[in-house]
Each structure stands twice: as C-alpha cells, then as structure tokens.
Amino acid sequence: xxxxxxxxxxxxxxxxxxxxxxxxxxxxxxxxxxxxxxxxxxxxxxxxxxxxxxxxxxxxxxxxxxxxxxxxxxxxxxxxxxxxxxxxxxxxxxxxxxxxxxxxxxxxxxxxxxxxxxxxxxxxxxxxxxxxxxxxxxxxxxxxxxxxxxxxxxxxxxxxxxxxxxxxxxxxxxxxxxxxxxxxxxxxxxxxxxxxxxxxxxxxxxxxxxxxxxxxxxxxxxxxxxxxxxxxxxxxxxxxxxxxxxxxxxxxxxxxxxxxxxxxxxxxxxxxxxxxxxxxxxxxxxxxxxxxxxxxxxxxxxxxxxxxxxxxxxxxxxxxxxxxxxxxxxxxxxxxxxxxxxxxxxxxxx
Length: 350
Prior knowledge:
By secondary structure, this protein is an alpha/beta fold.
C-alpha cells in the first residue's frame, strides 16, 4: 500500500544531500545526476528514480557494487510508491550482496521468520560481525527511519561491528523496505521477536539502536528495559507527534510517514494522528524501567522537536547529546556521531 504525493525534488535533495554524501557517495556524482532531475515520480529522463538508477548502473558496470547499492538507495528514496522505486530497492539489495566480499567485516544475509499475529512474518536481515562467528559477542539490532533503511546504515553497522566488537543485525522496521509487517500497534511484536533471535545468535547480551523513526522503536525498547542497552538517534517520542508539528513537516515528511503507515492515498491529519498514536511514548517515559541509553540528535532538526531529545535528560543510566549546527539525526556530522555511538557501545559491553 502506497501513494505518490507532491514534493519539490530540489528541496528534497537539498535536505538529504549531506546524508547521501556521508553514506559514501561522491558529491560531484550526486550533483551531476541531480542536475537532470525535474520531478520525483516520473520514470523517464528527468525523473528522480531514472537518473539516480542510471548513476547506480554506471557504478555496477564499473564493478563498484557498494557505490551502486548506495546510488540505488537514493533512486528508491523516499518511498516505494511506484514500480520503478520498488525495482530500485531490488537492485540495491542485489548490488549490496555483490559488494559484501569487499566489506571489512563478515557478512551474511538471512530471512528470519518472526512470530507475528498468530503466525510468522519474514524479516530479511543483514548480519555483520568482526569475525564469521558471532557467538561470543553481544548483538546490536539496528534499523533506520521511514525513508532510510538497512543498506543506507552500512557505515553505522560496520563502525559498531569493528569499534564496539559486536555483531550487528540490520533490518528494515515494520512499514519500510523489505519488511512486510505493518507499522502499527503490532510492530513491537516484530521488535521483540528480533530481540529474541539476537539473544540466541550472540552471547546473550543485546542492544537496540535506531535511526530516525527507528529510534522511536529503539527508544521504546530501552525504556521498556527489554534490551541491555539502547541508542536513540533522532527519534520522535512525544512532542513530534502533535497535529501542530505534523502540519508543519517539511520536504514531504508528512506523506513519507503516510506511506510507512500504509495509507493508499494522502491521509487527513486526523487519520495520521490515529496512526501515530501507538508510538507516542509518554507512558514509557513516566516509568523507571530503562536500561542504559544513549540519546542523540541535531539541534536544528526540522522534523523532530528538541524536546523529544531533551526529555531524556536526568534519567537514570542515560546520556544525552543535542549536537549544535546540524539537523535531523545529525546527518551532516554523521562521522563524529557514529564514533560517539560506537565508543558508547564498546564501553557498555566492555
């Protein structure tokens, strides 16, 4: 279920360009492809997916499979609202798997059957570890946001595996990417199922790390105390889930959220508010059950209000960083934030 929506291609690119660059794509190549883009949805010359897929294909032909995977990630951005973007996601996964022998860590792709609604649901995961045997290490489950998924978080996954000496299980959270489960009140069942798998995979210790909306889910895992450590990078928690904030969301984020929640057409504000209800975390924040937590965001985030980071200040076993001079998920300062998170994990599991 998905839908297209009005969004200015140049504005969307301008906001996400630092993130694409920090994932590992050359700015000159990105800008050259973007110079031909006139709209986000058309599948022809001048279309977002068409032009960035062409860049990805050139990388693939040159044998640069990881660069190709990143470029296909831009091509399928921001939602899978048409066949061209769904095809770009398929190509992204193919190129990422082809690139795996060049990774500085061991890699395995699995499809897990996670208990869900009385049966199971398939959740494709990427497992990255400093060695081929993860049994002696803690495990970090890692997911991205509404529009940035597991392949897009490769830099984080590798940094965690190498610096913190953990095994990383990267996945697309419900409502996004390859995961079929819906982003609704049952999404927590998928998370808890992944935590259970992670406890069996490694030495029994598990952390949950999330980026953007994925940090809402990791923040909830930390607040529930169902993991041994949790990282929240840019997660909306309370103040971001208000009608006033949703009315002022920029760069298509309101409809990116609408797609993730499974709407088939542009939803009303009331419909969106009902959909986000299960993810408002006031109740969890009122409890004192949390495990050690690291909470980080950029001070200039246009999507997530500062209060959703600062609300964690003063909590037991919780470290909070609001990074000046950067926006959502501190994307323009991602290298230093990745180092901060990896070192924090290493210290927790030393």
